[in-house]
Amino acid sequence: MAASSRAQVLRLYRALLRESQRFSSYNYRTYAIRRIRDAFRENKNIKDSGKIEELLNKAKANLEVIHRQVTIGQLYSTQKLVIESPENT
Q1: Residue pLDDT tens, the chain, 89 long
Q2: CA 73 to CA 23: how far, in whole Å?
Q3: Which of 31, 33, 71, 77 keeps 20 to 30 A from 42, CA to CA?
Q4: Are 59 and 16 in contact (CB under 8 A)?
């Protein structure tokens, strides 16, 4: 994989994780982070540039979906779960 392609993948990975951290719901947040990490680990050994480009486009589309869902989630407040309360940390 070319250095610029590797940098682009890492930049997208960090952007997905950062955006997922903004989910107000604990369940959505942990699911998204776990799913992102699993997907990138699963595809880390792919060498075909066409397949890499296809996966990058899919990840960019997913980043847009996550951004939209975070925005919608922030419009409607919910109570925090017990696991999120400060006494448990």
Answers
A1: 566 688 999 999 999 999 999 998 889 999 999 999 999 999 999 999 899 999 999 999 999 999 999 999 888 877 777 887 776 55
A2: 7
A3: 71
A4: yes
SS3 track for 3-17: HHHHHHHHHHHHHHH
CA atoms 32, 37, 41, 43: torsion sign: positive
Is residue 24 within 8 Å of 71, Cβ to Cβ?
Answer: no
Residues 45, 81: Cα–Cα separation, whole Å: 38
Residue type, 16: L
| Rounded distance between C-alpha atoms, residue 63 and residue 21, angstroms | 12
- Amino acid identity at 6: R
pTM: 0.83
